[in-house]
Design goal:
Layout lengths: L13 H12 L3 H8 L7 H7 L11 E9 L2 E8 L5 H12 L6 E4 L3 E9 L3 H10 L1 H9 L3 H5 L3 E12 L2 E11 L6 H19 L2 E8 L6 E8 L1 H4 L2 H16 L1 H21 L4 H11 L10 E5 L5 E8 L8 H4 L1 H10 L4 H24 L3 H15 L1
Length: 385
C-alpha cells in the first residue's frame, strides 16, 4: 500500500517534491512540465475559450498535503490556496489522525436536484396531474442524455412541493437525477428546460425558472475522525477544543470564522481539481443554517477513552468528468495525483481535508493561538519575496 507519510517534505526542493509526487501518482514527464509551467497550466487561448473577455491568466500556489489516510487508503492531497499555514496544518492533523486509522468517510450516490417553477395555477390540482404524468416526464428528461441512460443513470424521480409566498402559491416540480461521476449542472439544467413545456401543458400553468439546485441534500458526505487524547495534548486540550466548538455552535459571529477554516481545506482541494467552489460554499453554509440559526459545520465530542472525535457532514456536489476537469490540464493532473476513481471518492477526500483543517485551527486556537504558526510561515514568505 502507498504511504502518504513523507518525512520532511517541506524541506525538499522543487525537483525532489515533484519526484516524490510523480512516483506516488505515476505522473509522466509531460504532466510534470505542465505543473512547472508558470502560467498555471493553461494558455491564453484556453482561458479565452473558458470565459468571456479574457485578458490573461491568474495563478495561485499549488501545494501538497501529506499524511492523509482516508477509508484505509493513503493520499497525497493537492491544494490550491494563497494562505500560508493551511497545508502545513492539514498535514499535521492528518498525521495525528493516522494513530487511530485516519478518516472514515461515507458519500451518497451522486444525485442532482433540478427545479421547475410553475405559476398561475391551482397548485394542489396541478400536483396530482404532475405525479400522474411522472413516467412521461422522466422519459422526456432521459431522452436528453444518452450517456447517463446507457449507464443506467439519469432522471429517477419526480416530486412536487407547494410554495406559499408573498406572491401567492406556486408549484415547484423537482427532478431527482443520478448524474454519475459528473457534478451534473449542465445535464440537470438541460433536463429541466426540456420537460418545462410538458409540465406547462400538463398543469395549464406557466413555467418560469428551470434550473438545478446547488443545495445538494441528496448528495451528502459524512466524515468522522478520532484524534488521540495524549497526542492532541491531554484531557485539558481536548476539553478546550470541545469548548471552542461549542462557542462556534452557539454564536454565528464565531461560526462564520470557524466554518471559514473548514472551507480552507474543502475549497483548496476543490480548486485543485476544478470544482465549482461557489456551489460548494453555498450548499455548505445553507446546511449549517438548517436549524434556523447559523452553526458550526463540524461537531466535536470525546469518546470513552477521552479521545477527541470530530464529525463533518455537508452536501458536496463534485465531479471527475466534464466541466473544468475536462479543459484544465492541472485540474486533470491533480485528480490523477489523488488517484480517485469516482465522484464519491473525491467527495470523501474533500470532506476529510475540511475536517482535518478544522481540527488544526481549533487546536492552535485552544493552545498557542492562531498567529504563532501562521505568522511564522507568513514571515518566511515575506523573507523569500
Amino acid at each position: 500500500m502507498k504511504d502518504s507519510s513523507i518525512s520532511k517534505f517541506y524541506e525538499k526542493n522543487l525537483k525532489d517534491r515533484l519526484g516524490i509526487v510523480a512516483e506516488f501518482s505515476n505522473l509522466s514527464e509531460d504532466e510534470l512540465k505542465i505543473i512547472e509551467n508558470a502560467t498555471g497550466g493553461i494558455s491564453f487561448e484556453q482561458a479565452d475559450n473558458m470565459i468571456e473577455n479574457a485578458i490573461g491568466t491568474f495563478a495561485l500556489p499549488l501545494g501538497i498535503a501529506t499524511n492523509f489516510r482516508i477509508n484505509d487508503k493513503d493520499y497525497l492531497i493537492p491544494m490550491v490556496i494563497e494562505e500560508p499555514s493551511v497545508i502545513a496544518a492539514a498535514s499535521k492533523a492528518a498525521k495525528i489522525a493516522k494513530i487511530h486509522g485516519g478518516f472514515h468517510v461515507e458519500a451518497d450516490q451522486s444525485y442532482s436536484i433540478g427545479q421547475i417553477q410553475v405559476v398561475d395555477i391551482d397548485v394542489q390540482e396541478a400536483i396530482s396531474k404532475v405525479i400522474s404524468a411522472s413516467n412521461e416526464i422522466l422519459t422526456l428528461a432521459n431522452s436528453k442524455s444518452n450517456t447517463l441512460t446507457k449507464l443506467g443513470k439519469g432522471a429517477k424521480e419526480v416530486s412536487c412541493k407547494d410554495l406559499n409566498t408573498d406572491f401567492g402559491h406556486m408549484l415547484i416540480v423537482e427532478l431527482l437525477i443520478d448524474v454519475g461521476d459528473a457534478m451534473g449542472a449542465n445535464v440537470t439544467n438541460t433536463m429541466c428546460e426540456a420537460v418545462a413545456p410538458l409540465i406547462q401543458e400538463i398543469t395549464g400553468g406557466r413555467t418560469l425558472l428551470r434550473i438545478l439546485s446547488n443545495y445538494s441534500t441528496k448528495r451528502m458526505v459524512n466524515s468522522t475522525v478520532v484524534f488521540d487524547r495524549d497526542t492532541v495534548g491531554g484531557e485539558k486540550i481536548v476539553d478546550d477544543i470541545i469548548s471552542a466548538f461549542q462557542f462556534a455552535e452557539n454564536d454565528p459571529y464565531r461560526a462564520v470564522t470557524h466554518n471559514k477554516g473548514v472551507m480552507n481545506g474543502v475549497i483548496s482541494v476543490a480548486n485543485a481539481t476544478g470544482q465549482d467552489s461557489r456551489a460548494i460554499e453555498a450548499a455548505s453554509h445553507a446546511f449549517a443554517s438548517k436549524s434556523g440559526s447559523y452553526r458550526s459545520m463540524t461537531k466535536w465530542t470525546k469518546d470513552n477513552d477521552g479521545n477527541l472525535v470530530g464529525k463533518f457532514e455537508t452536501p458536496l456536489s463534485v465531479g471527475i468528468v466534464g466541466g473544468v476537469t475536462k479543459h484544465h490540464p492541472i485540474a486533470q493532473i491533480c485528480t490523477k495525483i489523488l488517484g480517485v476513481t469516482s465522484s464519491q471518492e473525491l467527495a470523501c477526500v474533500i470532506a476529510a481535508v475540511g475536517l482535518a483543517q478544522n481540527f488544526a485551527a481549533m487546536r492552535a486556537l485552544a493552545t498557542e493561538g492562531i498567529q504563532k504558526g501562521h505568522m511564522k510561515l507568513h514571515a518566511r514568505k515575506e523573507n523569500k519575496i
